[in-house]
Amino acid sequence: MILPIIAYGDPVLRKVSVDIDKDYPNLKQLIADMFETMYHARGVGLAAPQVGLDIRLFMVDASPFDDDDEDKPELKSFKRVFINAYILDESGKEWPFNEGCLSIPEIREDVNRLSNIKIKYVDENFVAHEEDYNGILARIIQHEYDHIEGKLFIDKISPIKKRLIAKKLDAITKGLVKPDYKMKYPAAKKRR
C-alpha cells in the first residue's frame, strides 16, 4: 500500500525517533509499504518519520545511482533496511552533493557531508550489523539517518540559502506544492 509522505512542517519530522523491537506491530507489512511508497515517489531512501511514525526505521535502495557505473557495482545491488540504527563514527573529507527530500518536494540544495561512516543497526530480521560505508552510500544513509534524529537536509545549508527558500518551505507546509505522489500536509490538520 502506498502511504502518504509527510510534508515539511509536520512536527513528526523534528522528533528524535525511538527504538523498536521485533514485536513491533505489522513490521513486515510496514517495511513492504514503505518500499512501495519510496519506489512510487522515485526515492532512494525513506525513513519512518516521513510516513508519520517516530520509530528508528529507514530503508535505502541505491540502484538509481548505479547508472551502469562499472566502478561501483555495489550501488546496483544495495538495498537495505536499517532498524535502530546509530552512526558510531563519521570521518573523511567533507564533500558537497545536491540533495533533495521527498518530504520537501521541489527543493534541492548542495549539502556538505563527511565521506565515511560506521553504523550499527539491525536488519528486518533483527540480525545485528556494524558496517562501514563511504561515498554516495554513506551520504544516502546519513540523509535517512538524519530523519530518525529529527533533522532535515535543509538544516545543513547556510542561513542565507535558508532565507532564500523560506517562501518555498512555507508553500509546502500550506499544501501549495503538489508533487506527483501522495502527501500529507501539516496545514491540512489545522483546518479541521
What does this structure look like?
This protein has 192 residues and is α+β, with helices and mostly antiparallel strands. It has one domain: Peptide Deformylase (Alpha-Beta Complex), CATH 3.90.45. It has five helices and seven strands; from the N terminus they run βαββαβββααβα. A five-stranded antiparallel β-sheet has the order 2-3-4-5-6, with helices on both faces. A two-stranded parallel ribbon has the order 1-7. The longest helix has 15 residues. It is globular, with a radius of gyration of 16 Å. The model has no long low-confidence stretch (mean pLDDT 93).
Keywords:
five-stranded antiparallel beta sheet, 192 residues, two-stranded parallel sheet, alpha+beta, Peptide Deformylase
Under CATH, the topology is which? Peptide Deformylase
SS-based class:
alpha+beta
User: Spans with pLDDT under 50 lasting ≥5 residues?
Assistant: none
Name the CATH homologous superfamily. Answer: Peptide deformylase
Helix content class = 25-40%
Gap between N and C termini: 25 Å
Question: Total helix count?
Answer: 5
Describe the sheet with the most strands. 5 strands, antiparallel
What assembly state would you assign to the polypeptide chains in this entry? Answer: single chain
Whole-number average pLDDT? 93
* SSE pattern: EHEEHEEEHHEH
- The rough form would be described as globular
Strand content: 25-35%
- Strand ordering within the main sheet: 2-3-4-5-6
